[in-house]
Amino acid sequence: MLKHGLLEGKKGIIFGALNEHSLAWAVASQCAAEGAKIVLTNAPIALRWGPLQELADSIGAPVIPADATRPEDLEFLFTESMNKLGGKIDFILHAVAMSQNLRRGRSYEDISYNYFQQTLDISALSFHKLLQTAYKLDAVAEYGSIVALSYIASQRAFQGYNDMADAKALLESIARNFGLIYGREKHVRINTVSQSPTFTTAGGSINYFERFYTIADHTSPLGNASAQDCANICVMLFSDYTRKITMQTIYHDGGFSATGIQVSSDKPWNKE
């Protein structure tokens, strides 16, 4: 784990850490190592499933339960976080996603629309609710940084990613549209990180995930980005070194998003 003190004196909120396999867990750990004080949050039901308190104890972070789809929970979260951290928030990570259609094996041409609405609410609209609540409370410091985790299925068709692809497309659109307003009026920057396939609890619910991972790893010139790599780029985006980057989707995938067809004898699908 690299330590450069990039977040010394900064205060942050990390949404979505569930267990040690979560991207948000790695991000929270790295933020603390870089000198930040943070609040950890997740939905009350999720806190009963995972050992988040272990992470909280190890980095000295309070845990404030909040359902990211409920504005009243978010208002309480931001108010309490500012009280506990002693001021406005400098950075926020949104790592919130869930699809019952995926979990229940519903194919895209036969999804439940009730589940689809839940997917959009949890995985994308929660980001707008987070931003709107923070904006109304003026909870984020000037040149603060807000990052949401995305995936390239927002831009390309990936069979098996289902309605989560639509949710990620909406997530990225929200980052651009709210980023225009928040940046112009408060100098707050909003970006998304389009991460490589990564073995997480959420990733395990995707059909053919191992194929996603393997093909991306072999296609990418640099290979897949790990959870620790994701933590490092989030720290960079939270830091003062990226004060002029906003409304962007950062493709953090070893070059997968920019790579076309390759012909190489060392690829597993090559036929002699």
Describe what you observe in this structure.
The protein is built from nine helices and six strands, in the order βαβαααβααβαβααβ. The N and C termini lie far apart (42 Å). It is 42% helix and 14% strand. The protein has a six-stranded parallel beta sheet, sandwiched between helices. Helix 1 crosses helix 9, helix 4 crosses helix 6 and helix 6 (113-137) packs parallel to helix 7. It has helices at 23-33, 44-49, 52-59, 71-85, 100-103, 113-137, 164-186, 209-219, 227-238; strands at 11-15, 37-41, 89-94, 140-150, 189-195, 249-252. With 272 residues, it is of the alpha/beta class. It has a single domain (11-258), classed as Rossmann fold.
Overall mean pLDDT stands at 92
The main pleated sheet reads as: 6 strands, parallel
Structural domain count: 1
Radius of gyration: 18 Å
Helix content: 40-55%
Q: What would the principal axes of the Cα set say about the shape? A: globular
Distance N terminus to C terminus?
Answer: 42 Å
If classified by CATH, what would the architecture be?
3-Layer(aba) Sandwich
Could you spell the SSE succession in H and E letters?
EHEHHHEHHEHEHHE
CATH top-level class: Alpha Beta
The CATH homologous superfamily: NAD(P)-binding Rossmann-like Domain
Strand order within the widest beta sheet: 2-1-3-4-5-6
Q: What do we call the CATH topology?
A: Rossmann fold
Number of strands: 6
**Binned strand content:** 5-15%
Sheet/helix structural class: alpha/beta
Number of helices: 9
- List segments where confidence is low: pLDDT < 50 over at least 5 consecutive residues: none
